[in-house]
Amino acid sequence: xxxxxxxxxxxxxxxxxxxxxxxxxxxxxxxxxxxxxxxxxxxxxxxxxxxxxxxxxxxxxxxxxxxxxxxxxxxxxxxxxxxxxxxxxxxxxxxxxxxxxxxxxxxxxxxxxxxxxxxxxxxxxxxxxxxxxxxxxxxxxxxxxxxxxxxxxxxxxxxxxxxxxxxxxxxxxxxxxxxxxxxxxxxxxxxxxxxxxxxxxxxxxxxxxxxxxxxxxxxxxxxxxxxxxxx
Length: 231
Hints:
mainly alpha
């Protein structure tokens, strides 16, 4: 008789599934040179990849916390370092710009000193002294004087012409008093050569002076009665 080793419940259940049955038969074969070993993630104790179950976990929690703190500190220090470098570069660029502006202004001042440009800034736009209100000497001052006198002359001539058109008797028709005539100065005479577009004003026409006849008396203005005036 041959003794048969009894099979376990697990082996009996494994025979119900084809995949488990094939695995069991492959593990039990002994022909040729095949040798079956149970595989897994656990290495043999004598192998280089072996590690105990306790060694799989981190036991030095204080060391891990210190490493994390050191990494956070290094990250913060690196951020501060880049920030300092950036500010230093910006400050260097700012001072470089200030120096360039100063050099440009200095060169401009040197050119103004060489060309005597400082005196030009005090020169007025018109050839007259704004304090004493006197015209400058030279053709520019004479030209401005002639332009102002021509303007005053033409204004007085127009005012006299309008006054002469308003009344021809020489008396105020309401009060009967003589009208004060507008004084027309003499036409200005240029003392320099007139430029292009400049013309001497025409002299004022000779006006007949009104002389009332002997015994002439203007009639008084009629008195108006407010009661008779239409409402």
